[in-house]
Design a protein that fits this description.
By secondary structure, the protein is of the alpha/beta class. Helices cover 44% and strands 24% of the residues. It has 5 helices and 6 strands; from the N terminus they run βαβααβαβαββ. The radius of gyration is 13 Å and the shape is globular. 29% of the residues are buried.
């Protein structure tokens, strides 16, 4: 997938994201919203951030690691791109992908990202 080749920035708040977006050069970038921030802000707040950051050249991805409740919560609120850990059981991952496909959500594997800053 092309998304894995983009430069990826891991952030904890919207200010970091806006600074990166405003200073970016040409090309597409990934903004990876940290799992720790998701835990204390919740999926609803992250959905609001996704809407604020939405741009054609920016992929907003939320890190859910191997936390099934976080993954399902993000799918439920309609986060477009979710990053999960390769540590997930293959059967569980396939079930998550099936649920996500019905909701038009992309499930991405965190370990496949080329470069994370």
């Amino acid at each position: 997938m092309k998304i894995y080749k983009n430069l990826t920035y891991k952030i904890n708040n919207i200010d970091q994201a806006l600074k990166i977006i405003n200073n970016k050069k040409e090309g597409n970038i990934n903004i990876l919203y940290a799992f720790e921030a998701l835990q204390w802000q919740g999926a609803e707040i992250v959905k609001i951030l996704e809407k604020k950051i939405k741009q054609p050249s920016v992929n907003f991805i939320v890190e859910a690691r191997d936390d099934l409740s976080a993954i399902l919560m993000l799918i439920e609120v309609g986060i477009k791109d979710i990053s999960v850990s390769i540590k997930l059981n293959e059967i569980t991952l396939n079930k998550i992908k099936s649920i996500a496909k019905k909701s038009k959500v992309n499930i991405l594997v965190a370990e496949n990202f080329k470069e994370v800053r």
